[in-house]
Amino acid sequence: MTKIKSYWLMKSEPDVYSWDDLVAEGEGTWDGVRNYTARLNLRAMQVGDEVFFYHSNIGLEIVGIAKISKAAFPDPTDPTERWSSVKVKPVRKLKRPVSLKEIKADPALADMELLTKFRLSVSGVKPEEWAHIVELAKRPT
């Protein structure tokens, strides 16, 4: 039986770790997450799941798509091994970023966890939300 791919959104402050940083590394470790719900999301991720890379605080926009390259393992920044991390690889930069303002204004995205659980640094994305955002990124600016 083939596992159905899941979709996620991961937030990062671009002045700390940006899309360009991930691209330059080729593969990054998503660590330092200290929220129980986000930890559950990290632990649910499987190799091949796709991720929106979201620039938080500065930019406030989805800028790229990455893929989980290694499922959950103990966070190397946590000596207690209570927290988890995953590895991600860049897939592609979006043709144009999709801003938080645009997402908030779109009724099709009203229930997106980015909006309903806005403090969460790692959140789930429904397949229909994923497809809608991918289409928004193709539209001219």
TrEMBL record:
What the entry lists under CDD domains is as follows:
EVE
Q: Which SUPFAM superfamilies match?
A: PUA domain-like (SSF88697)
- What Gene3D superfamilies is this protein classified in? ph1033 like domains
UniProt superkingdom: Bacteria
Instruction: Report domain EVE positions.
Output: 6-136
The name this protein goes by in its record: EVE domain-containing protein
